[in-house]
Amino acid sequence: MPSAVDSVGLTPEQLESFNENGFLVVPNYLSAEEVQSLLTTTHVLLENFSLESHPMTRFTTGDDDEKTKHVGDDYFLSSGNKVHFFFEPEAVAAPEDDPKAPPRLLKPKHLAINKIGHALHSKSAPFEKITLSKRNAAIAGSLGFQDPRCLQSMVICKQPSIGGPVPAHRDSEFLYTSPPSAVGWWVALQDATPGNASLGMWKGTHRGKKGGHIRRRFVRCEEGGGTTFITNEGPALPLGKDEDETEDGQADEDFEILNVKAGDLVLIHGNVLHKSEKNTSDKSRFAYTFHVIEGAEGWTYDERNWLQPPEEGFSRLNAV
């Protein structure tokens, strides 16, 4: 079945839906062969990475209490141009008889990983082929990007029974540009259904009248390493949006749990509120996601963001 996106990008109807809701489901974005290629690559990565020098870093979003706050370590902060592996909190435990001993795995390593990131688009040929494509450059052009730059690519595994929840957040809190510009590409590699920890979206919450302002940011600590959330003192809405719009906030009727099939793409506005629940099913829910920010003059990628550009800069979609 042909993709719903061609070289001219999104249709006017798709763009209208994205602008109205803050997200868009694009069916059949990847072919069955493309999905299988990424799944095969993911399984090879999961089977073959070494535990010998791994710091056993667990992944959480930073909203957790101090005892699980691991995201400030070098392994996380240096992953922007590498392929690193992050464990589910429930898959790792310290030996009870010696708290200083290395953590131990409670599951086989290929069933213990929360995500693989954050430079699959530049360090893995199959992911690079899917990501840095004319198709994605065309989509970015439809969304108004002048110089789209790709960053933070990762496979999110959502392992059976332990795949951790992702609390409500806005992506531009983590990848802040001034003014905000981030858009997420979220691609289902396995079916993501309401019973399998699929995405939950608050429709329209990217707009100022729905509380879509970026009020906080996830940054590197100025002293002592680590990461933290701070109050955003820069522009809170994308260019051209009214910063003085009255905030009515999100409502229960705005919330929608998506039913996404393997190969479908979900485009996610950087200001829209969304989340996913813990995977309590007996099936994994693999997804590949990456983000695009504006690299043109007039937008600044903040130097305090947790993820910083490699020496060569973030990958340019328009260069393909």
TrEMBL record:
Species of provenance:
Talaromyces rugulosus (Penicillium rugulosum)
Q: Name one Pfam family in it.
A: PhyH
Entry's family note: Belongs to the PhyH family.
Q: Residue span of the signal peptide, if any?
A: none
Name of protein:
Fe2OG dioxygenase domain-containing protein
Q: Supply the InterPro entries for this chain.
A: Phytyl_CoA_dOase-like (IPR008775)
Q: Which PANTHER family match?
A: PHYTANOYL-COA DIOXYGENASE DOMAIN CONTAINING 1, PHYTANOYL-COA DIOXYGENASE DOMAIN-CONTAINING PROTEIN 1
According to the UniProt entry, its GO molecular function terms are:
metal ion binding
**Keywords attached to this entry:** Iron, Metal-binding
User: Which SUPFAM superfamilies is this protein grouped with?
Assistant: Clavaminate synthase-like (SSF51197)
Q: Which cofactor does it need?
A: Fe cation
